[in-house]
Amino acid sequence: MTERMVIVGGGQAGGWAAKTLREQGFTGEICVVADEPWDFYERPPLSKGALLEAAPALPRLFSPETVAALGITWYRPQRAEAIIAGEKTLILSSGQRLAYDKLLLATGGRARLPGSDWQRHPAVYTLRTWEDARRLKEQLACSQRLAVVGGGWIGLEIAASARKQGLEVTVFESQSLLCQRSVNPTVSRALLEIHQQNGVTVHCQAGALSLDDDQGKPVIISGQQRAVFDAVVVGIGVELNLELARQAGLEIDCGIVVDSFGRTSNGDIFAAGDVARHPTLGIAVQSWSFAQNQSVVAARAMLGDLSRGYDDAPWLWSDQYHHNIQILGIPDPDGTTLVRKTDGSALYFTLTPQGRLSQLVAFNDPRTVKLARRWMATGRDLSGVPLTDPEFSLMTLR
């Protein structure tokens, strides 16, 4: 009897899992349940090229020919409503029952909003899907004043894209620093300076915001201040789509709990991408590299290949104005930050009290990120190394 692998989720994690199954020689049926009509696509371009290019195209993960060669049985646009784990069966929104041998949950997340009134206002946007990007691009073309709620990576990328189009941009961040959850304060201040230099008005510690309406235009209320905008984009993170996993009785703690092979608490169910908890950090990680690389490991494990688990350090990047910013690792709260600046680039090293690198944030210096991966993998002691000296060659630390 032909084996059937079922993937719930048509995003990056689902796409790489399907491709990996075929590359590893799986000849059975691959079914993909997706709630969008599009082929697998990447989300990072949605806040950049999809908003800036004159005629943006769907940022496909693979070429149409590659997707066709995978021989996928698509169920789209549909949702997976329930898992009958004892029968290894998935119930779809159409009412159809889909049996599986192995099941991969790559359900990702949905954009978070402050409240239902924000969801109802026609000039309030989120940016999570290709359709979101197309709608927002149309709005930006006829807007002059934009509010961005959320000073994280997605909010700052949208702010940069809007400024490139000449809009007046105001960023409201509830925390005291930009991207506070993912980088140290020194990097946060550098991000603030970049955006202020490019004409963005930034309000940190904005507190709880309220939404009002002025003749169809959204009004942001912060404390005693009211400001009218043509549009508002909310970028305050995601709500993980955990409903299916929870209904199936899978272990959940900051995401679906998986081991280094993507296996959940049910041996026939795997999880990958945003919805899966990082196996060594114990947190959910939303990044392009995690969605790709961890799903590859999970797909191999679905076929019984347990030769290599996933334990990569988190890595993400952001393009803002003329800066390429790469973030490797997470900052140690007890660590020390060292700064190295040269013409056009800057490096922010966070070292643990033991001298190990816990995070590197690199502005316009991808080569050092590659070096830093080796330092992290080997646990290299960087105590006493003159990292801040621009005359010192980091290449000697290879």
Automatic annotation (TrEMBL):
Could you confirm whether the keyword Flavoprotein appears in this record? yes
Q: Name one GO cellular component term.
A: cytoplasm
Q: What is this protein called?
A: Putative pyridine nucleotide-disulfide oxidoreductase
Where the record annotates domain FAD/NAD(P)-binding, the positions are 4-282
InterPro entries on file: FAD-oxidoreductase/Apoptosis (IPR050446), FAD/NAD-bd_sf (IPR036188), FAD/NAD-binding_dom (IPR023753), FAD/NAD-linked_Rdtase_dimer_sf (IPR016156), Reductase_C (IPR028202)
Give the protein's cofactors: FAD
Taxonomically, what lineage is the organism? Answer: Bacteria, Pseudomonadati, Pseudomonadota, Gammaproteobacteria, Enterobacterales
Keyword check for Metal-binding:
no
The protein's matches in PANTHER family, at most eight in alphabetical order, are given as: APOPTOSIS-INDUCING FACTOR 1, RIESKE DOMAIN-CONTAINING PROTEIN-RELATED
